Amino acid sequence: MKRGGKRLLVLTAAVVYSYAIAFGQSVPSESANSSQYLQHATRGVETLQGWYEKGTGLYKTTGWWNSANAITVLADYSKAANTQEYVSTFANTFTEAQKTNAGFLNRYYDDEGWWALAWIDVYDLTGDARYLQMAQSIFGDMAGGWDTATCGGGIWWSKDKTYKNAIANELFLSVAAHLANRVANRQAALYGDWSRREWEWFSASGMINAQHLINDGLNSSTPTACKNNDQTTWSYNQGVILGALAEFSRFSADRTLISGARAIATSATTHLVDAKGILHDPCEPKCGADGPQFKGIFVRNLMQLYELNPDPAYRSFVEINADSIWNATRGADYKFGLVWSGPFNQADAATHSSALEAIIAAAVMRHDR
């Protein structure tokens, strides 16, 4: 996705919190406790399901790939709340959504990656092997997008083969690493090898800039000398890589991957926020159909990094944003809007599910405290 906009260059409150913690200072907090965050999340999930359309298995008011993220949010909530209440919803989407795109495949490799990760999350929750098998099938199609003639490697954004961008390749890495940790023996080695190939290419591609932020993609006008296109550093591009590297680190036991992820996380929580530490994308307050989903993806993946690297600064960052969502951008019927610092404008399944991910993350991270 390519949109213009100016980056926000201000100090995050999360960094201030980390300094205080490092020097043994107390950090005042008005955050909710884990139980309260979970109550907030339950309200939010009930509202989210008001957009769910049983006949299609998708969410009204938003798109195909956004619905994959909404399913992921529902799975994340179910794990946090230790509930099987939505198992039938997952099964319904698995059947009905394939009437829109069989096998969860379409022209866009990033769309496919979102659905693969959604079904891996559902597999983790339910243990139902068909969800893992679907993710493997989707990954097989994504791997068909790998190409070395342009930019020396990586997968294309779409099957039109016009653009190599960050999000498709981050998702490819993440799906590969997640699968490597969930299958056995030779299959695991295959996915682990794909993870290694993708990260070696991605980390050398130039998409990670000098600030440790990831730009949108590559300029391939000279296919053998591709360069960072210096386009927008969207929040979701800083996010997906965190979860991907955390999973690859689990598989490979390579802690340098966590160091790389930390550099990106610190930069994102420093440069993509306002003076109060609230996360923003530069498209706000009008982000089209795609942008409203981005910030929740960042927080979800920061939570995955936190599981391996429980930095208090990450938890503080998430709580600051979750509290602001609840207090400043909550509308009637517990609907959450686009701008997390407020005020509430309007909500749809994309803005709501994105914000809901931050509240779920706060519940999980506070519980681990």
UniProtKB/TrEMBL annotation:
Q: Which GO terms describe its molecular function?
A: hydrolase activity
Q: Which UniProt keywords apply?
A: Hydrolase, Signal
UniProt-listed Pfam families: Glyco_hydro_76
Give GO BP annotations, semicolon-separated. Answer: carbohydrate metabolic process
**Alphabetized InterPro entries for the sequence:** 6-hairpin_glycosidase_sf, Glyco_hydro_76, MUG_Protein
Cleavable signal peptide: 1-22
Could you name the domain of life of the organism this protein comes from?
A: Bacteria
PANTHER family per record? ENDO MANNANASE, GH76 FAMILY (EUROFUNG), MEIOTICALLY UP-REGULATED GENE 191 PROTEIN
**Protein's name according to its UniProt entry:** Glycoside hydrolase family 76 protein
Give the species this sequence originates from.
Telmatobacter sp. DSM 110680
